[in-house]
């Protein structure tokens, strides 16, 4: 077998490092994160695919927020969290893909991205940030900590409540991905969670 090409991040441009990370770590789930600006109450909604489960007990999720493309400080989601906002991590259903895309544009902080993208918001139970009404799953969270990673920041969030769409769980309490049709990312493109198969019995 021919040896693989060895590429070191320090020898590459940032764009190529990003291409290898985004193309190589696949599929990536998308956290559609809602927050509120504590001073003004303006809701904010934005997608993040540097996203994973960090632990079960306590239930922790991690989302990494990179610097703004224009170099102009924190993205609104991070600014809201630094100012004391809680958050909701919503799953993106396939049907709301175009709206999710609109919320990824860097809108000014005073723009309500739910309204801007035509996404219905509804109240959360335990946190101030609204949730996406038509998300199959929405997780109400509080900020546990912010971990600086060079220019980026890892947001560690603790789940307080799961909102599960009726009919989404099977009799054993497992999420039915054929019904969730969550959007994920593969490189710069998208996929859905319907292409699944079992290799053995799952919990
Ligand atoms: C599918 C998708 C995934 C994204 N993932 C990330 C991510 O993990 N981290 C990040 O900083 N930006 C990510 N972005 C870009 C942000 O969504 C974008 O910068 C957005 O404008 C931030 O919004 P805000 O300023 O309201 O927080 C992603 C965009 C898309 C479309």
Automatic annotation (TrEMBL):
**Any matching Pfam family:** Flavin_Reduct
Flavin reductase like domain location is 23-178
Which cofactors are required for activity?
A: FMN
- UniProt key word Flavoprotein: yes
Keyword flag Secreted: no
What are the protein's UniProt keywords? Flavoprotein, FMN
Q: Which InterPro entries match?
A: Flavin_Rdtase-like_dom (IPR002563), Split_barrel_FMN-bd (IPR012349)
Which PANTHER family does this UniProt record tie to the protein?
FLAVIN REDUCTASE LIKE DOMAIN-CONTAINING PROTEIN, FLAVOPROTEIN OXYGENASE
Record's family?
A: Belongs to the flavoredoxin family.
The name on file for this protein is Flavin reductase family protein
